[in-house]
Amino acid sequence: MKEVYTLIKEQFQNIGIVFRISQYEDKAEYQSHYLGLVWEYLYPLIQIGIYWLVFGIGLKHGNSTHGIDYLPWMVIGITPWFFMNRATLDASKSIYQRVGMVSKMKFPVSVLPTIKIVSNLSSFWTMLVFSIVVSFLYGVRPSIYWVQWIYYFICMIAWMLAFGIFNSTISLLVRDWRIMLQSLMRMLFYMSGVLFNFETNSFPAPFVHLLQLNPFFYVVSGFRDSMLGTMWFWQEPTLNIVFWGIVLFFFLVGSHLHYKFRSRFVDLI
Fold it and tell me: What's the protein's topology in the membrane (predicted)?
């Protein structure tokens, strides 16, 4: 736990640097493109359009999910997924890309994954606003349940920090890990309830219970429960305990490996 405390302390002590560098990286990534930062928002919108046409119109023939039209149901779930997917992949290579530079200055390497996570928040907020607008157009109205999206946002950030520090370290120790992680994220896209509603009688109960243990599924379904007014997070105490247990596990393992091998990061590249 001491290593977890040290890790979190470094994040808060360098929060100003994290936000400044993340803003710089946002501008630098798209500065050579004609549309610039527009691509950061245009790409997910194009993806949403494709998924809606294929799964909402093509396969579901426009049918609703839990009485909610498929488009707002899908957009609300895919918004946190787009953020978590990109933040996970970017954080996994953050140390590998920058450790040579930061090793020459007094800079905590542990904040590199956090910078990648924060830099993806701008597109997340835009997508969240878009999902709310779409929901309004399809008749979804604000309710008291909306306040708990703050809880699920905290869950999402905590999970990204824990998973990010773990993946960024493992990627240096095992060169094939980043490729494996990309394949894993593609699989989790279809197993996290982003496009399909698994919590129905159409799927075996053991299969549904297994999927609910997935932290990505927990966050995606949590955002839907909040925005669509389905249920409160404390009504599923077991899932809450499992989720935070997984987060703590990755924090413990990730921080331990990070501090154990940090002095050798440059040699591992």
Answer: Multi-pass membrane protein
